[in-house]
Amino acid sequence: MKDVLILGIETSCDETSAAIVKNGREVLxxxxxxxxxxHQPFGGVVPEVASxxxxxxxxxxxxxxxxxxxxxxxxxxxxxxxxxPGLVGSLLVGLxxxxxxxxxxxxxxxxxxxxxxxxxxxxxxxxxVKPPFVTLVASGGHSHLIYVKDYDSYDxxxxxxxxxxxxxxxxxxxxLGLGYPGGPAIDKAALEGDPDFVxxxxxxxxxxxxxxxxxxxxSAVLNYLNGMKMKNIKYRPEDVAASxxxxxxxxxxxxxxxxxxxxxTDRVCLSGGVACNSLLRKMMREKCDAHGIALDYxxxxxxxxxxxxxxxxxxxxxxxxxxxxxxxxxKPNLKI
Length: 336
Ligand code: KG4
Ligand code: ZN
Prior knowledge:
The chain is α/β, with parallel strands linked by helices. It has 2 domains: 5-121 and 303-319, 2-Layer Sandwich (Nucleotidyltransferase, domain 5); 131-297, 2-Layer Sandwich (Nucleotidyltransferase, domain 5), CATH 3.30.420. The chain has 11 helices and 10 strands. 53% of the residues are buried. The model has no long low-confidence stretch (mean pLDDT 96).
């Protein structure tokens, strides 16, 4: 069978990324320009600043992706670009560039849902991952539990009712003075902390619900910190970070395992930036092993936003002949 090469483009938030992926599984290049340092002084992503920087970078990032892959523009079979969900101004940059590129190169355009991209990261470099499986997609913008029936067929079992898991990590890290992005900072601080120092609430919601809620936990941590401040009691941020992380990870793990058992699947995959979390990986591994469930997660650079995952998702749509209409536009609230 002829190899299929897809150019992926991702600009939904603050990473400008372009990648070339072969047959949905092999990364030939994955160039990621992160704007983290630009947004750091603001403690979070500033949408207008993000889109302006995407405009500055996108052309050279795409060129780098071709150079590193060692191929020419006409060697690709299709262009895959994220069209939602995300920041509308940011999405428009990558999508417009992808459309123009596809038009000029006379190649088809495939529109990709960013969450589909995160899920597809699990196929990259890992031939053994094939649907069906249950996946937890946890990032700065989303927390979903999804039953992946086929490459392009998903049942959303549950999602967050308020904050995304990564968003909670980012907010608590900011309050603890650990910096932005908060996930890696809390992960690191928690290594030096006591996870049993404070028993923060776990929001399991209704017995049969696969939904998540992290806003109550966030308030509980903030109330705890305010109380300590008012009583002038000293605490170690590492202990609070470890206790908070344990509360998030326990709920994510238990709900994911419950879904895998209820849906009788023998494979669980993790996706999204929070899938980099060391405690989540460890606890999920222990629970999956105990139940005889295979566990997979992408390399950290494929968990956080990148274009290889978009090209990977593009491959599966390309194979089915699902191409974007010419009037495809950015959809900031696109659902999976
Ligand atoms: O997938 P991603 O790059 O962007 C979105 O689609 O949102 O995820 C970024 C999120 C941020 O909230 C970041 O704090 C979180 O993933 N994150 C982590 C870790 N690494 C990144 N959260 C917990 N532990 C980590 N090690
Ligand atoms: Zn993402």
